[in-house]
Amino acid sequence: MSETFTGKVWTLGDDIDTDIIIPTEYLALKTVQDMAPYAFSPLRPELAAQIQPGDVIVAGKNFGCGSSREQAPEIIKALGVRCVIARSFARIFFRNAINNGLLLIENSDLRDAVTEGDTIEVCVGEKIVHKDREFPIASLPQNLMDILNAGGLVKAMRRLNGLEG
């Protein structure tokens, strides 16, 4: 059985790189929580403060391109974003996001159909529903779902090795 949730949409364009997600100058801050208020600041300085837990980012192609910055998906997760839906993701960002327990969904049509502030329903591994229109999505392999469900790779490995319940 798949998980279903709803979330408010925040829209972003194509080629949102890791320097936009979290600019280099804020990487010196001590914690991801300290960095989170500066997320997306080069593009939309107000955005981090507006995102609420359970919200969803819907973006264009090549989300997370740029440097391999593990803090980028950690900060998105720290903002409370439930998932990022984009036309495509940079490969290293995709892997870093899964390893940090952030759900990513690829869909080529949703970005053009939604408006910022809309609410969507996500049936993980099945579909996205927006204004009675369904957008099919592929399911992730079970090993990746296990990592996501555990909250990240470290937690999944601890669970697998009997170190956590």
Would you kindly provide a written description of the structure presented here, covering whatever features stand out?
The chain contains 8 helices and 7 strands; from the N terminus they run βαααβαβαβαβββαα. It is of the alpha/beta class and 165 residues long. A 7-stranded mixed β-sheet has the order 4-3-2-1-5-6-7. α5 links the parallel β3 and β4. The relative contact order is 0.17.
Concise account of the structure shown:
This protein has eight helices and seven strands; from the N terminus they run E-H-H-H-E-H-E-H-E-H-E-E-E-H-H.
Give a quick account of the main beta sheet: strands, pairing sense, barrel closure.
7 strands, mixed
Helix content estimate? 25-40%
Estimate the mean pLDDT confidence: 94
Structural class by SSE content: alpha/beta
String of helices and strands: EHHHEHEHEHEEEHH
Would you report the number of β strands? 7
Task: Just name the CATH architecture.
Answer: Alpha-Beta Barrel
CATH topology: Aconitase, domain 4
CATH level 1 name: Alpha Beta
Strand order of the largest sheet: 4-3-2-1-5-6-7
Over all CA atoms, what is the radius of gyration? 15 Å
Q: Give start-end ranges of low-pLDDT stretches.
A: none
The helix tally amounts to: 8
Number of domains: 1
Q: Label the overall shape.
A: globular
What fraction strand?
15-25%
Under CATH, the homologous superfamily reads: Aconitase, domain 4
Distance between the termini: 21 Å
